[in-house]
Amino acid sequence: MMVIRRFEEEAARNYAKGKVGGFLHLYIGQEAIAVAAAEVLEDRDYIFQTYRDHGIALARGMAADVAMAELFGKDTGCSRGFGGSMHLFDVERGFLGGWAIVGGHLALAAGTAFKSKYAGEDRVTMCFFGEGSTNIGGFHEAMSLAGLWKLPVVFVCENNQYAMGTPLERTSPLKDLSIKAKGYGMPGDRFEGHDVAVVQERLAKAVDRARSGGGPTFVEIQTYRFRGHSMSDPAKYRSRTELEQRKQQDPIVVVRERLMGLGIDENTLDDIDIEIDEETDAAVRFADESAPALEDVMMRTVLAPEDGA
Ligand SMILES: Cc1ncc(C[n+]2csc(CCOP(=O)(O)OP(=O)(O)O)c2C)c(N)n1
Predict the structure, then answer these.
(1) What is the pLDDT of residue 308?
(2) Cα 190 to ligand 1 centre (Å)
């Protein structure tokens, strides 16, 4: 979780320096969810995420320097510098993006889950999205089909309370989004996302259900992003008091206290933090020193050849 936190802080700093192009959506405050998810999934499973994708990519094992290089638009990035922050991708680790169209990737997740079931593969798909996605057509189509065909997929709604600047109560007649699961013939679950152990235990149940042929689950995790929607959002739609209250439940503080309660001494945790600081600084240096995305790679991979071959 500290790897993600420090990565995001450095990403923000380098965005301000003009080193990261395009948009940048930070995961600060939601780290426990990605880490718990990575813990309960097997290497062969598939993962989809929105544009707020650095946390799960790192939790899944993408190296921080490769991820940072992608943000910097460098050839050494996971998408060779052509995806950027919103389009991290790592086929070897089953991380199938990084998607910017709200709700669109739920259909892709239903697709991989269908493939796994059809081919008789023991693979679960986990699909993350924000609460804003639950009002979009793609959500309905994917949930409906997944419920009907009992696909091995876990839909994880990271309800961080705001879709850009809009609070949930202005977009949804329901406060408890997990109720929606019923309409698609699947079980729903709902819980707080600041304690990594709790998230791990509850996500494990949904993953087990999918893996054992029990079909999909819709999970709503209550969370909070400590930064704005993206770097261009000063987040004036919420009060300082609200933010400070939420920070009382900072998932990193919670896990630190839990570890100390288990008898791990503070110096050990501080040493880990120092190690992570060094790794993150090295990731920034690597990204800085790498060559920019290459034109010939773009011509071969982004654009179709003129003759249509
Ligand atoms: C189909 C579509 N409509 C609108 C947008 C613009 N947009 C980008 S993020 C966002 C809010 C999404 O909020 P939520 O789903 O709650 O996710 P969060 O950013 O909070 O993680 C919107 C409306 C988009 N990317 N795609």
Answers:
(1) 64
(2) 21
